[in-house]
Specification:
The chain has a single domain, classed as Lysozyme. Helix content is about 50%, strand content about 10%. The protein has seven helices and seven strands. The protein has helices at about 5-15, 65-85, 95-105, 110, 115-120, 135-140, 150-164; strands at about 20, 25, 25-30, 45, 50, 140-145, 145. The protein has a three-stranded antiparallel beta sheet. It has a two-stranded antiparallel ribbon with strand order 1-2.
């Protein structure tokens, strides 16, 4: 399987972006505000749809929508491998897209060890801390130790997509 165009569009909405003059520009992932690309970039400098800028990457002139989508598709590959490597049951396209979105956001390693994976793979699985797949899924709504309303909303939408 491969993430669908619908899945890509959902990820784009979840990840957000900052555009100026029709181009994607570098922004601070925490604040969502553009950063001065002529100065040293802060930790968490991002471009396009959630692409954390790595050492050696130069996006000071911004990127086009096409480039932002290509980078997102490339970044998603790790999440797609996490789903393919850890989910052992057949999935619908919506389920696959939802799981890729979750894996992309929480990271492949966290996804692989998650209760979500255990529930998806085994309909008889039970966990006392997270008694349902939904509770296990929606538990991934924290950042920096605190619950984030944006992540809670994202988990709700992903879980709805999974069940659609």
């Amino acid at each position: 399987m491969k993430i669908s165009d619908n899945g890509i569009n959902i990820l784009k909405r979840f990840e957000g972006r900052v555009k100026i003059g029709g181009k994607h520009v570098i922004y601070d992932d925490k604040t969502g505000k553009p950063v001065d690309s002529n100065k040293e970039l802060p930790k968490g400098a991002t471009i396009g749809y959630g692409h954390l800028i790595k050492s050696g990457e130069d996006f000071r002139k911004g990127i086009t929508e096409k480039q932002a989508t290509e980078i997102l598709r490339s970044d998603i590959l790790t999440a797609e491998f996490a789903v393919k490597d850890n989910i052992t049951v057949p999935l619908s396209q919506n389920q696959y897209d939802a799981l890729v979105s979750l894996a992309y956001n929480i990271g492949a390693k966290n996804f692989a060890g998650s209760t979500v994976v255990k529930y998806v793979n085994d309909s008889n699985y039970h966990n006392t801390k997270y008694p349902t797949l939904e509770s296990a899924w929606k538990a991934w709504n924290k950042s920096g130790g605190g619950e984030m309303s944006g992540l809670s909303n994202r988990r709700h939408q992903e879980f709805s997509l999974f069940n659609n």
